[in-house]
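ugh ok so i messed up the first submission bc i forgot one of the chains. this is the corrected input, ALL of the components this time, i swear. 396 residues overall. if the numbers dont match what u have on ur side tell me asap before i send this to the collaborators (the ones from the other lab, u know who)
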Amino acid sequence: MANGGPEIEQLIQLLARLPGLGPRSARRAVLHLIKKKEQLMLPLSAALDRAVVAVKSCEVCGNVDTISPCSICSDARRGESGILIVVEDVADLWALERAGVGQVRYHVLGGVLSPLDGVGPDDLNLDGLIGRAHGYSEIVLAMNATVEGQTTAHYITDRLAGTGIKVTRLAHGVPVGGELDYLDEGTLSQALKARTEI
Amino acid sequence: MANGGPEIEQLIQLLARLPGLGPRSARRAVLHLIKKKEQLMLPLSAALDRAVVAVKSCEVCGNVDTISPCSICSDARRGESGILIVVEDVADLWALERAGVGQVRYHVLGGVLSPLDGVGPDDLNLDGLIGRAHGYSEIVLAMNATVEGQTTAHYITDRLAGTGIKVTRLAHGVPVGGELDYLDEGTLSQALKARTEI
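and heres the new structure output, hopefully the right one now
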């Protein structure tokens, strides 16, 4: 294969590791980048350089942002609602933000309990959640509607039992087996409105 | 939308412009990059920086490479066969190389004649082809099997008429309406073997 030198070959191999891109689509993407060097390749290269330096994980909630605490944790208005939404992943946080769920705060677990995969309570950002939960009047558990997600929700409910904090979960508008990031904004919004107490 | 600062938002918007990625898959790709910062984001950033500097268009054939003339044009063994394959695009050149068509040289037109889109002979690398054709014993026209591709093949055949150079086209193993880059290697190999004289 003489796909134009090691620099191009390496770029293809790295792009092929992105979700949604395989070796073939990575090649097309690289050719597209080379064709649009000024309009796309240079800006993308600069944007990646900036992001590498700027992006960090929020020390409070686990969100990704360019500041820590992140812009959501730093926003005082978001604390006033007293609502803390617990999500598995940053993608789920973004999905809820796109759904426009209002002035709330988030806590990103960084995964779900999954004994088969060797993921226990210590592998998740659970102590951080327990530590900050007392500052909120309601904890909304917005895990995916999978077995692992619901197991994690039960575990958190048990941990918070006796603290007097109201613990709720998303309404069963979420299709069973589905993942938050793939839902349309309307469904997510409805599921949050119809949340029920555990 | 508080997708974590302008640096992240800009990265998503740029990645969404790659073929095969939309806004949603670009978001997933960026989150994946941030999660795999050391293993993927840093190497990709560095690879892009290097490619931006290194990648150039071959002054002879139009291929993309890090040297000009490109590694194919610089390879003396590839000149010995006397075969020059004319393709629309660099993606087609790469597809033929993957099919292992042997020690041949290429000429990338950079598109096809398409009066409806305002693409005439002056917009393609046609003069370059006519200028170097005399150094080869056979010109293989490997355009896509589309109306525009075949029109371009006819135009090149007319321009080369009277030069005594043998002009061939790919065999009709290529599905009508299909594009080279999507074909499997076996079909491409067969199509080249069964090429017929125009």
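quick check: Chain B has two domains: 5-54, 78-197. that seems consistent at least. The radius of gyration of chain B is 20 Å.
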